[in-house]
Amino acid sequence: MADIIAIDGPAGSGKSTVAKLLAKKIGYAYIDTGAMYRALTLKALREAVDLNDEEKLSKLFNSTELDIISDKTADIAVMLDGENVASLIRTPELTEKVAYIARVAAVREKMKDMQRKIGARGESVFEGRDIGTAIFPDAKYKFYVDADFDERSRRRHKELIEKGIDISLDEVSRDLQARDHKDMTRKIGPLKIADDATRIDTTNMAIDEAVDKIAGYINH
């Protein structure tokens, strides 16, 4: 599993940016597993599938072609039934609905198989919530990227404002708190740090510094 680097962590920790830049730095493919759940959520919303009906969500996934394509430049294509939906899956409305998809056991099992097949293609940095614990538990390199809650809230708020989304810091904090709770308490694939993962606290750390620190572990 030396060709797989597993990076987990909560929203707003800097995990995604760190994973992208790390992949670019070391010449690995970047795989955002959360984007796969977002893409399926997009399809469910488009087809007006009841998000509380786990059987229908599982059937929806069975009829879905899903893939992540990375050219090792940190840019990815999120392919949903042949359509690149990478630019369509980051809206607040969709973000708050992803948890409905992520909690379905049948979907997570199929996603796990799909992600492992993607990993078999070669050297990759995988980013998500359960990469080091469930998807690639034997990965040689595992990292848990984190930051304190207030800092994560500020980062998420700044990101949304820059995207032109009018939302208050209090609203972002409440949404983030709810998301953390859902991620950490779901029965299947909860967010937690793997026993053998290295924790990287980015609260007072520049992104480049965090990337260099992780690269240092890998090149040690």
Largest sheet: 5 strands, parallel
Number of helices: 10
Give the CATH superfamily. Answer: P-loop containing nucleotide triphosphate hydrolases
What is the CA–CA distance across the termini?
17 Å
Instruction: Enumerate the strands of the largest sheet in spatial order, edge to edge or round the barrel.
Output: 2-6-1-7-8
What is the CATH architecture term? 3-Layer(aba) Sandwich
Features:
Rossmann fold; 10 helices; 220 residues; five-stranded parallel beta sheet; three-stranded antiparallel beta sheet
Give your account of this protein's structure.
This protein is of the alpha/beta class and 220 residues long. It has a single domain (4-211), classed as 3-Layer(aba) Sandwich (Rossmann fold), CATH 3.40.50.300. 49% of the residues lie in helices and 16% in strands. It is built from ten helices and eight strands. It has helices at 15-26, 33-46, 54-62, 92-95, 98-102, 105-119, 131-135, 149-162, 169-185, 207-219; strands spanning 4-8, 29-32, 66-70, 76-80, 83-84, 124-128, 141-146, 198-201. The chain has a five-stranded parallel beta sheet with strand order 2-6-1-7-8. It has a three-stranded antiparallel beta sheet with strand order 3-4-5, with helices on one face. Strand 4 and strand 5 form a beta hairpin. Helix 1 (15-26) crosses helix 10 (207-219) and helix 8 packs across helix 9. It is globular, with a radius of gyration of 17 Å.
